[in-house]
Amino acid sequence: MTRDTRPHVLIVGGGYVGLYTALRLERRLGAHEARVTMVNPENFMLYQSLLPEVASGTLAPSHAVVPLRRTLKRTRLLAGRVTGLDHRRRTATVQPYEGEPGEVVYDHVVIGLGSVTKVLPVPGLVQRAVGFTTVTEAIFLRNQVLSRMEAAEALTDEAARRRALTFVFVGGGYSGVEALAELEDLARDACRYFPSIAPRELRWVLVEVTDRILPIVDRDLAEYATRLLRERGVDVYLETSLESAEDGVIVLSNGERFEADTLCWAAGVSPDPLAAGMGLPADDMGRLVVDECLRVRHTPGAWAAGDCAAVPDLIEGGTCPPSAQYAVREARRLGDNLAAVIRGRELTPFRHRSPGELITLGRHRGVARLLRLRLRGFLPWYLRRLYHIARIPSPLRKLEVWLDWTSALAKPRDVVHLGSEEHPREPFHEAAERTGAG
Ligand SMILES: Cc1cc2nc3c(=O)[nH]c(=O)nc-3n(C[C@H](O)[C@H](O)[C@H](O)COP(=O)(O)OP(=O)(O)OC[C@H]3O[C@@H](n4cnc5c(N)ncnc54)[C@H](O)[C@@H]3O)c2cc1C
Q1: Which H or E element spans position 182?
Q2: Mean pLDDT, consecutive 10-residue segments, the chain of 438 residues?
Q3: Closest protein CA for atom 44 of ligand 1
Q4: Rg (Cα) of the chain, in Å, rounded?
Q5: Domains (ranges, CATH) in the chain?
Q6: Is the minimum distance from the CB of 307 to ligand 1 under 6 angstroms?
Q7: Which of 214, 247, 255, 405 has its CA 20 to 30 A from that of 283?
């Protein structure tokens, strides 16, 4: 058997960085020039920007993900996790889905591990809160809101009803604001199917430690978003932090204390801790330090981008923000540069001037900064949808997302909650017990 002498590229992570780097390599290099392997825990790439719509039910969960096996033509996917790297030996340790860990030898490694929710030591937080970075969390939150409304419909005790109908979101960045706005819309619409619940009985609380929400847009747009949320009855608490959530009792730094069954923690992310644990140069925030061509500093053969990397921002100075917008562009440049190295060509530094941001504030409302324009209301909401449809890297998914959104405009809200999906074996166990087999 002849030995495969093609350079081997190992991509760690199948998110924005992993997927777009792989697509770029497939485009730039012929099959004879390199082989590419991707390791990712799931066989899909999550398009995180669409999670708010998954939570509100205007998008099917499977339409917010891109199937890696179908989208990638020449990249081998290994479902599992990289658990360590020995770059001197150019070897990664991989824990597959099942079975014993194994080693993968590579010539180049691309690290796109992304980030994890930044959890702070707040009493009760770990026990009571849910994050908002995965599709499972988005589905859970939708089920949670609807199941709390079902519970309240049957409750007569005033305090218990208030607790069920109080929803607290911590973090005024785009994920916290978009999640709250979409879910609040869902719940308000759903009230028509719950005869005993008036919309004003629902209490939505947004807690933000700084003096403003949405730091990625200009202050006037953030103030507009704050006003809009307050007009909808949302309690937006600025310069306030969560002090405790023990037993579902929410204690805020402004002295407020109340009970809530639902607590969503969207107070920021930090680079995946594995990045700093790989023995490669990392900064004090735990991000891999890369040069302007996306090479890990002083480490030939190692590349990184996205949320887990400190990528120099040659336009604005400092480092690039952790966002999908940057991750996609960085990945494309990384793919081009890696292909150039394999072909012995010149590298090009990464440069991206952000055209702006588009944020949803629930149905038909949004804010946007687009170049010099500041938009609010329906137009940015609509443009955001067009933008994401244009961006999703799969023609079939584009169509499915468009169909979901178009039909959601015409249909009444679906208020079914499939909470029992979280315990799929329960009915079987119950049946076994009742039939005497358990
Ligand atoms: C709710 C929400 C909404 C957002 N909306 C926007 C938006 O509108 N616009 C915008 O620009 N940005 C948005 N972002 C931010 C954006 O999603 C991130 O910046 C982007 O995902 C970063 O890309 P990445 O490739 O670095 O990481 P990711 O896309 O997170 O990919 C990391 C991948 O690595 C995998 N992985 C983790 N550990 C291992 C391991 N040990 N081995 C192998 N694989 C591993 C993960 O499973 C994941 O697939 C949003 C984020 C959230 C949470």
Answers
A1: helix 174-190
A2: 87 98 97 97 96 94 95 97 97 96 98 96 96 95 96 95 98 95 95 94 97 93 95 97 97 98 95 97 98 97 98 96 96 98 97 93 90 90 94 91 89 76 79 83
A3: 13
A4: 23
A5: 8-117+270-342 (3.50.50.60), 125-267+356-410 (3.50.50.100)
A6: yes
A7: 214
